[in-house]
């Protein structure tokens, strides 16, 4: 008699979760032991849909919750109600959530309320500062308590969970972002008009992103002022900023960076164009989490526009430097990276502490092991 398939409901809602869950959804779909269902919360709408198109992901449920200027309470409550119904209808064996967004936290909580197992992909990242990143540090800590399976990118992440005594099963898998980059990174030409016109041969291009809630207000003003000074004092560089769709971020970007001849404020890029842009850039300035993993894999130095990071591995390896949010420090670090060739080459080394592109097969193997369909635990990812 055929064994019943393991019904897995993957839930995600923002751009980075979608990029990092896409290869896992594809892996589950390719294995006959699983019935793979996808529910998107659409905490992001356009930015999520772009990723779904890019990876050709078909969704089974769409909660469509996004509102302009949504609050954390809006997101959490709309997901609890919406996902509760989906769980009653589908009765999955396990719900998979990713990372530290409010989609991930509210979905893990909804699954727990329904007494359904929770698998946490990209588990165990910590700053141990509950307000930074906000609300992500608390989201991921709470998911850690709710989850039955923790799929951690690095051994350090596993140590964090062991130290917190979270319970459940921990598997060191690597980060699925490296699996995703197998789909997105290629050497094709740009499709975006603003990128087609850039002269990567004779001018150095810096990719910038900035969107985090804890940077709203003074920190974001400091970051943008430093970037503007950098552009003014180095007319031979181009700074390209695909601006996040958050109204707060867009207003600030326009206010502090608008009108500068060598700063291009452009619409968010699809993942392939973004990875292409990073791979052709001289270096990257960002407060993003995912970009701190991708840029080192592409051999691009990163200046992190935050006061802490939950990704210390690339800092230790030397490709990522924490600048904080002080205007003078950001300006000084970026200037040094432009002027000091030996510093630049010491940082511009392709390193990959976050995975070998096999995280998704390991997660699928771990689920088979956890649900007693296999006696063999997945081999751990080693740095
Ligand atoms: C969210 C996550 C953050 C993650 C980021 C990735 C939380 C609390 N925050 O932050 O961890 O780093 O996504 O980008 O989960 N908007 C659109 N269209 C879109 C997306 C956003 O218009 O496709 C606008 C909406 O007005 C929305 C606002 O952006 O209200 C903010 O979106 P939200 O998901 O609340 O916060 P993010 O800053 O994107
Ligand atoms: N990204 C993208 N288009 C953009 C900017 C970012 O596809 O215009 C990708 C980026 O390469 C990474 C992910 O989005 O894979 C990071 O998302 P974001 O910075 O919004 O969130 P975080 O990682 O900080 O949670």
Give the tags.
383 residues, alpha/beta, Rossmann fold, 2 domains, seven-stranded parallel sheet, six-stranded parallel sheet, 45% helix, globular, binds uridine-diphosphate-N-acetylglucosamine, binds uridine-5'-diphosphate
CATH class of the largest domain: Alpha Beta
Note the main sheet.
7 strands, parallel
Class derived from helix and strand content: alpha/beta
The amount of beta strand, in percent, is 15-25%
CATH architecture of the largest domain: 3-Layer(aba) Sandwich
- Give the domain tally: 2
Which ligands appear in the coordinates? uridine-diphosphate-N-acetylglucosamine, uridine-5'-diphosphate
How do the strands of the widest beta sheet line up side by side? 3-2-1-4-5-6-7
CATH topology of the largest domain: Rossmann fold
Enumerate how many helices there are, as a single number.
Answer: 16
Looking at CATH, the homologous superfamily of the largest domain is Glycogen Phosphorylase B
How many beta strands in the DSSP annotation? 13
- What overall form do the CA principal axes indicate? globular
Q: In sequence order, what are the helices and strands, one letter per element?
A: EHEHEHEHEHEHEHHEHEHEHEHEHEHHH
